[in-house]
Amino acid sequence: MNASQLDDFLALSRANPQFLAPFSETLPDGGQVQVWDTGVICIEPVVPASKDVVLSCGIHGNETAPIELCARLLADILSGRIVCRQRLLLIFGHPTAMNLGVREVEENLNRLFSGAHAKGDRQSMERQRAARLEQYVTRFFQHRDATERLHYDLHTAIRPSQYEQFAIYPFTHGAPYHKGQLAFLCDSGVDTILLAHGPTMTFSYFSAHQFAAHAFTVELGKVNAFGHNDASRVAKLENNLTQLLQTPGWQPPPLDLARIRVFKVCQEIIKQSEHFCFHFADTVANFTMFSPGTLLAQDGSRQWRAGDNAEAVIFPNAGVALQQRAALMVEAAELSADRLY
Ligand SMILES: [Zn+2]
């Protein structure tokens, strides 16, 4: 294969951040590697096993640890160190934002899926990218009726977290939660699970809702600059992803509910005006707890308080645009056996 073209796909994508003409090459084991666009590369094994896997990172351009993790996995696949037995779509989400070292250029890419990119008159770089990423995921999953569709959308948080690695389980519309996936996440070091309370415009909800994929937004710790991440902190997930891709039939140890911490969303705090403010320091860690009734935020005469149970704050950001979510409030939840399958 032409080592010069695919030697470093991430660098190639960052050198062509808007568009990359498709091309394909052959892997050492005879499989196909297909470049679909900048940041979008598909691995087609000679005889694919039963899972179709989407792995995405860099939907926010400055979330470098997952970008580096995916680049390492891809390098191992291209060199033949990992023989990828599952169909894989690897997505480096936002090369332009990566080049600028920013989370987003014009707006939050992870609020533009499930068609949100086409709503209203607004045009933006992120809207174009969301539309194209939806097409690629659709093309990938519709290629066949895989036994299992998976999508892990990897992120890092802006701020520290009481629980460093956590996953958001997109709204299931009442369907039960998947034991095998919770076991995979827990064994990968992602032992805190947040159950979403409604449809969202995130990439993971898109795959879950449109394609019945087991899809998750996975938060892997705090944002650092490229080259300043400690790979050992994501090693468990990296090892498990490697197992998933190269060993059909591999399974993590069975789920032990005592080892996972579960929260559910209880309220969203939406910024209404420029008078919006939090009643806690803007720098608090994710999952900081507040006692029942605590005043959390204020916007003119509107107040938000913790309800009858203690609530923890996630993703607080008073700087969001008007009508956007300034924080998500969650409370501890139980996952009883009848809600699992
Ligand atoms: Zn992110």
From TrEMBL:
Binds 1 zinc ion per subunit. It comes from the Bacteria. InterPro entries: AspA/AstE_fam, AstE_AspA_cat, Aste_AspA_hybrid_dom, SuccinylGlu_desuccinylase. Coiled coil: none annotated. CDD domains: M14_ASTE (cd03855). Zn(2+) binds at residues 60, 63, 155. Keywords: Arginine metabolism, Hydrolase, Metal-binding, Zinc. Its EC number is 3.5.1.96. Its cofactor is Zn(2+). It catalyses: N-succinyl-L-glutamate + H2O = L-glutamate + succinate. Residues 51-244 form the Succinylglutamate desuccinylase/Aspartoacylase catalytic domain. Residues 259-331 form the AstE/AspA barrel-sandwich hybrid domain. Pathway: Amino-acid degradation; L-arginine degradation via AST pathway; L-glutamate and succinate from L-arginine: step 5/5. Gene3D superfamilies: Zn peptidases. The active site is at residue 219. Transforms N(2)-succinylglutamate into succinate and glutamate. PANTHER family: ASPARTOACYLASE, SUCCINYLGLUTAMATE DESUCCINYLASE. Belongs to the AspA/AstE family. Succinylglutamate desuccinylase subfamily. This is Succinylglutamate desuccinylase. It comes from Oceanisphaera marina.
